[in-house]
């Protein structure tokens, strides 16, 4: 009932709030370079009623005789699919506090940076999954400025949860997340449970996602470091070595491969963990992996900053690698399709909230901002440095996420029939990122002082201009929930792998063979 009321409220906002930008009946984006994940070309985009109606090549003059409600001149600019951020925590209660970016402020920041869809995580804790789903929908529907979808964490395991998983798959939640980190909390899952939950995901056609770090070893290291007197933010990366992430990554890949279920490893931060992904892909396993704007844009040397607040703002898990070369290493893996997507894990806390861990690093709320700056940070460090192409940029900022989480081609491509979620991107525009000017709620940013070249000039979500030239123009509740079907792109290879395994695992028929006299003597 609540969801229904909130949806009506969202639609009412859209229809009657005079500040809400209307979806123009017909809008033409003219003269830009359209960039999709496979190629770029000159063309015009016709949008009608929230959808891309047609893409015209320059030689197709038909549309010049028509009238449009709105024409945007995109000459000299790129026209790309709006960003899709597959990993966010808005309005999330975690480590005794709640993130500062709620669904309203967080999605203002999203559209200001060119992101038009994000996927948040339902964290049910001890609640039934359907109840938690309703809670997330009730809070998000009335606030979001762009479209969103939902993954769901599994924080416990029993028959009821197994049944509830099916219920929420029917509501469009077709990806489930487990944590091998955060020992001593309901997030942490052991191998036996993972095996069972992975099996259940396969029965339901859902993608399994894992936060992979060895929680047992982190706990041991934390206790050891604290005894040694290491209580500042530097204790955070020191307690989470490269091997701690790599071991858990290897382990969850092995479990997923044993079940033969598609696995998506969230926030790969260390090179050793990334190498585990590469190895698994070379073996033909169905493994997808995500890099973060944090790991591609900054490095973890800040944990040793003398100023406590500065060091603490980078505390997130896994820790950002303190080796400055990792940024480029991961960008190269995005170029070679070894890493698939880029996300933010936007989970932002204020300075005051970070100070909850002033006495000891293990109490600093884990998480950083990113949803506003992901697109520009990746363009600057990827395309700007010649490591990835503009089409690669689209592949890793929207298309691959849309495919893996089964929203493609509704999202992640500019073509007739797709949602009119796109950005007009100015590759020459520059800015210096600062908490003084960002749209996030936080009073600090991990990207403070970072210079980016390549900015979103205009963001269009469902045919509505939601951001233009520095101004957010949408209203809360104007985005939509995106329900996703199971057994999507991520499952394409699974039947073939199952079949290969069945052939390999056929028992040898020895019924007609008599034991030789020699073996009988033996
Ligand atoms: O530090 C992080 N990543 N905070 C958010 C919770 C999680 O681990 O996903
Ligand atoms: Zn995580
Ligand atoms: Zn997360």
Task: Characterise this structure.
The chain is of the alpha/beta class and 522 residues long. The chain has a single domain (80-472), classed as Alpha-Beta Barrel (TIM Barrel). 34% of the residues lie in helices and 21% in strands. It is built from 17 helices and 19 strands. The strands form three sheets. Strands 1, 2, 3, 4, 5, 16, 17, 18 and 19 form a nine-stranded mixed β-sheet that branches. Helix 5 (191-204) packs across helix 8 (242-259) and helix 8 (242-259) runs parallel beside helix 9. The relative contact order is 0.17. The model has no long low-confidence stretch (mean pLDDT 95). Residues 89, 211, 316-317, 345, 347, 366-367 line the site of N-(aminocarbonyl)-beta-alanine. One zinc ion is lined by residues 211, 266-267, 317. Belongs to the carbon-nitrogen hydrolase superfamily. BUP family. Belongs to the metallo-dependent hydrolases superfamily. Hydantoinase/dihydropyrimidinase family. One of its GO terms (cellular component) is cytosol.
